[in-house]
C-alpha cells in the first residue's frame, strides 16, 4: 500500500471516529439542555395564561428540544404538550389508582429485574428518561434500588443464567437509551454470554422524543450482537412521527432491526378514530409497525387521562375499517395477575 492510500485510510478512520464521538455527545448535550421549567415552555408557546400545577420533586417536568419543536404555538390543547405539562388533576386522590399499578415490585426476584412471564425478563436499566410523561406507570418506582454499575448487575445476570426457560430479555427503565453507547454495549455483551438468551428487546421513548440518540455507535452495537434485537418505541400521536423522529425510525428499520410501537390511549390526546388512524399510518410509512394500543395503567396522578374501554373498542372498530390489517395494533390492558397482556 502506497503512502497516499495509507494516509487516506487513516484520515477516513479519524473522520469516522470524530463523527461517532460528535454523534454521541450531541444527544447527551440535548438531554442536558432539555427544558425543566413549565413556565419557560409555556412562554415559548405563547401560552403564558396557562398556570401549571408544579409537581413534587420525585416526578419533575422534563422535555427535550426536539419534542418541543413539534408542538403547535398558541394551542393549549396541543397533543404533545398535554402529554408532558403538569396539571392540578395530578394531585387528585382517585380510588384504584395505585403507585405500582402493574405490580412490578411483587414480581422482582432480585433488584433491577422483573419476571412476570415464563420466557422473558425485564431489566430496569436506568431510572432516567429524556421526557417525563405525566401518565407514566412507573412515575413512583423506587429506581434508587436498581443496579447501576456493571458489577452490581452480576446477581441479575446470574439469576437469568439459572433460568433456562428465559430466552428473551427486555431492557427498560426509565429508558435504557439514556445509557451511553459504551455502557449499553457492555450490558449487551454480558447478556449475550448467557447461552439460552436469543433475543434482546429495547423499550424506549428516546427515538421519538430525542431522535439524535439513534447514533451509529448504537446501531453498530445492535448489529454485532448474536442476540436478535427488537425495538419497541412509544409514540402516542401522529404529530410525533415527523422530521428527525421519522428519520431516526427509518435508520433503525433500515439497519435491519424490527421496530414496533406501543401507544397509550389518552383522553384529549389520541382518543379519536382520526388520531389513531393518522398515528398508525405515519408509523407504517416509516416501517414501524403498530403493536399495542394500551389501556391506561391506573397509576396515581394519571386518572384524568383515562378513556373508557367502550370508547377504546369503538376506536378499534374504526381502525379495522380504515386500515390494512398489518397497521392495526392490538388493544390491550396490563392485568398484574395475568401471564401477559389481556386483549380487550
Walkthrough of the structure:
- This protein is α/β, with parallel strands linked by helices.
- The chain folds into 2 domains: 3-86, no CATH class; 105-343, Aldolase class I (TIM Barrel, Alpha-Beta Barrel), CATH 3.20.20.
- 34% of the residues lie in helices and 13% in strands.
- The chain is built from 11 helices and 9 strands.
- The protein has helices at 3-32, 38-44, 65-69, 81-84, 154-161, 181-192, 206-209, 216-224, 243-254, 273-285, 309-322, and strands spanning 113-117, 120-124, 168-172, 199-204, 228-233, 259-264, 289-294, 330-333, 342-343.
- It has a 9-stranded mixed sheet with strand order 1-2-3-4-5-6-7-8-9.
- Strand 6 (259-264), helix 10 and strand 7 form a beta-alpha-beta unit.
- Helix 6 packs parallel to helix 8 (216-224).
- The radius of gyration is 21 Å and the shape is globular.
- 34% of the residues are buried.
- Mean pLDDT is 90; it is low at 5-10 and 12-19.
Amino acid at each position: 500500500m502506497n503512502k497516499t492510500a495509507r494516509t487516506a485510510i487513516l484520515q477516513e478512520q479519524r473522520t469516522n471516529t470524530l463523527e461517532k464521538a460528535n454523534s454521541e455527545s450531541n444527544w447527551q448535550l440535548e438531554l442536558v439542555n432539555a427544558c425543566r421549567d413549565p413556565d419557560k415552555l409555556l412562554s415559548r408557546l405563547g401560552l403564558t395564561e396557562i398556570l401549571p400545577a408544579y409537581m413534587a420533586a420525585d416526578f419533575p417536568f422534563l422535555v427535550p428540544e426536539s419534542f418541543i419543536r413539534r408542538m403547535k404555538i398558541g394551542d393549549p390543547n396541543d397533543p404533545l404538550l398535554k402529554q408532558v405539562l403538569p396539571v392540578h388533576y395530578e394531585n387528585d386522590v382517585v380510588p384504584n389508582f395505585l403507585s405500582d399499578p402493574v405490580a412490578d415490585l411483587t414480581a422482582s426476584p432480585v433488584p433491577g429485574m422483573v419476571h412476570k412471564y415464563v420466557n422473558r425478563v425485564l431489566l430496569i436499566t436506568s431510572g432516567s428518561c429524556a421526557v417525563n410523561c405525566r401518565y407514566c406507570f412507573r412515575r413512583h418506582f423506587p429506581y434508587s434500588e436498581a443496579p447501576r454499575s456493571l458489577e452490581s448487575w452480576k446477581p441479575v445476570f446470574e439469576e437469568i443464567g439459572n433460568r433456562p426457560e428465559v430466552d428473551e430479555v427486555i431492557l427498560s427503565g426509565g429508558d435504557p437509551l439514556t445509557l451511553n453507547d459504551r455502557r449499553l454495549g457492555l450490558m449487551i455483551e454480558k447478556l449475550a454470554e448467557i447461552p439460552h438468551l436469543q433475543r434482546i428487546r429495547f423499550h424506549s421513548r428516546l427515538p421519538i422524543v430525542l431522535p439524535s440518540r439513534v447514533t451509529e455507535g448504537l446501531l453498530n452495537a445492535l448489529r454485532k450482537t448474536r442476540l436478535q434485537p427488537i425495538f419497541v418505541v412509544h409514540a402516542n400521536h401522529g404529530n410525533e412521527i415527523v422530521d428527525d423522529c421519522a428519520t431516526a425510525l427509518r435508520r433503525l428499520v433500515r439497519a435491519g432491526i424490527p421496530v414496533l410501537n406501543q401507544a397509550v390511549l389518552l383522553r384529549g390526546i389520541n382518543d379519536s378514530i382520526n388520531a389513531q388512524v393518522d398515528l398508525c399510518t405515519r408509523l407504517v410509512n416509516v416501517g414501524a409497525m403498530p403493536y399495542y394500543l394500551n389501556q391506561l395503567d391506573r397509576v396515581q396522578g394519571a386518572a384524568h387521562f383515562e378513556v373508557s374501554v367502550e370508547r377504546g373498542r369503538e376506536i378499534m372498530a374504526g381502525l379495522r375499517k380504515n386500515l390494512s390489517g398489518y397497521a392495526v395494533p392490538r388493544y390491550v390492558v396490563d392485568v398484574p395477575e395475568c401471564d401477559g397482556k389481556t386483549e380487550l
